[in-house]
Write a structure and sequence with these properties.
The complex is a heterodimer of chains A (84) and B (311).
Chain A (H helix, E strand, L loop, with lengths): L17 H7 L5 E8 L2 E9 L6 H29 L1
Antiparallel strand pairs in A: 1-2
Chain B lengths: L4 E5 L2 E5 L2 H76 L5 H14 L3 E8 L1 E2 L3 H12 L6 E3 L5 E3 L5 E2 L4 E3 L5 H4 L10 H10 L3 E2 L3 E2 L23 E9 L10 E7 L1 H8 L7 E7 L8 E4 L15
Antiparallel strand pairs in B: 1-2, 3-8, 3-12, 4-7, 5-6, 9-11, 10-11, 11-12, 13-14
Classes of the chains: A alpha+beta (84), B alpha+beta (311).
Chain lengths: 84, 311
């Protein structure tokens, strides 16, 4: 296996190892399958990029941040009321 | 609020903390800190739960998208194979080599529907003895002097040198400005011998390995598998070929029907190559180690690779 190119572009002569692919893929999401094409075996590899983040996951992240903020706010109010 | 002892003197109130008051304050602070710690812990747990959930959702989306893309490529190659089988059947039913007009009529619907396959051709087996007659027939059909040509190391065309057998293109569809130059082109001079030999042995549609038809200075021969409008500037062609056995020739095939394509063109005709969510790589596992690379969809520029390996 031989790789070249910049940090985001890579050209492999041979099929890279699973570790290499996982390291390159977003959250290690790799899909690999072999298909028979006219007597030859092609390996198709798909790697996830950060663009695959769905709107659902973004909503979840926002929800988590909201809960954290509300928790801290409630704690602050509790501290203030205890000193009052 | 803790109980307090209040002393009143001269109209001013003064707090006088006692032991009980201090104990209440300590316990209140303890409760606040405990609530703070529990809040942080719950938040972290919640964060991990949501993160896991998010990863599962992401994995589901990824698996679905990747499967769809792979299936699309597989279906497209199957479509090319089925077309060549149908074309081969047409030769068998006719019992003779199709005329160019018949060939064009048969191929037109497939080419019109297809965004990937650039050219479909018929190439008869021509012996050295038959060469002169074959070239004369081609010249009559093309209304121009047409000879059997071969690919040079500089990826230009030159008259083919004498050899026992040729596999020149006699019919090429769709027609283009370069058709006259490409008709007569000996496929075996470009390195498609293995694919045709394998096809002849199996009598099935066979795919070639990665085969270079041009270099950085594009030649006319690149028109076989791509077009001047393609942004990929692809130098490598993939050939699907099927032998034709007419009743008159029992042992050797009469010729081969072939479909030329460039992998970036094929892949991007069936999947959305402008979608940045996935990187797609295709390797030929049947090829030698240094020739396995076929295609990649580059993430950074979202443009197609030139299909040129790094060495």
């Amino acid at each position: 296996m031989q790789a070249s190119g910049g940090p985001t572009q890579v050209v492999w002569d041979t099929i890279p190892s699973p570790d290499t692919l996982s390291a390159r893929a977003y959250q290690g999401l790799v899909y690999s399958t072999d298909i028979d094409v006219g007597g030859r075996t092609w390996t198709i590899i798909c790697l996830a990029t950060s663009s695959i983040q769905s709107s659902t996951s973004k909503c979840a992240s926002i929800l988590v941040l909201l809960v954290l903020t509300l928790g801290l706010l409630a704690d602050t109010m509790l501290i203030q009321s205890s000193h009052g | 609020m803790a109980r307090q002892t209040r002393a009143f003197g001269r109209g001013q109130a003064r707090l006088k903390p006692t032991c009980i008051t201090a104990c209440y304050r300590v316990s209140a602070l303890f409760i606040v800190l405990l609530a703070f710690g529990v809040g942080i812990a719950l938040s972290l747990i919640f964060w991990h739960v949501v993160d896991d959930q998010q990863h599962e959702v992401l994995n589901g989306v990824f698996q679905r998208e990747a499967t769809n893309r792979t299936s699309s490529v597989l279906l497209e190659t199957a479509r090319i194979r089925d077309f060549l089988i149908d074309l081969g059947s047409a030769y068998m039913v006719a019992g003779y080599q199709l005329q160019p007009s018949q060939f064009d009529l048969f191929c037109m619907p497939f080419i019109n529907r297809s965004g990937d396959t650039r050219s479909v051709s018929y190439s008869p087996l021509v012996t050295l003895d038959q060469r002169a007659a074959f070239e004369q027939m081609l010249s009559l059909e093309e209304n121009a002097t047409t000879i059997i040509t071969q690919l040079t190391p500089a990826y230009t065309l030159e008259p083919a040198s004498p050899r026992p057998l040729y596999l020149p293109i006699s019919i090429l569809f769709p027609p283009s400005n370069h058709s006259n130059e490409l008709v007569g082109f000996d496929l075996w001079s470009a390195g498609f011998e293995n694919a045709t030999a394998q096809a002849a042995a199996s009598r099935l549609v066979t795919c070639s390995s990665r085969t270079q038809l041009s270099n950085s200075t594009r030649t006319d021969i690149v028109m076989l598998h791509t077009s001047s409008l393609d942004p990929t500037n692809e130098q490598y062609a993939t050939l699907f070929t099927l032998p034709i056995y007419l009743p008159t020739a029992a042992t050797l095939p009469t010729g081969f029907v072939s479909a030329f394509t460039a992998l970036p063109v094929l892949v991007c005709s069936v999947i959305d190559c402008s979608d940045p969510s996935l990187e797609v790589f295709i390797f030929d596992r049947s090829a030698p180690p240094t020739e396995q690379y076929l295609f990649q969809l580059v993430r950074s520029s979202l443009s197609l690779s030139l299909c040129v390996p790094s060495h």
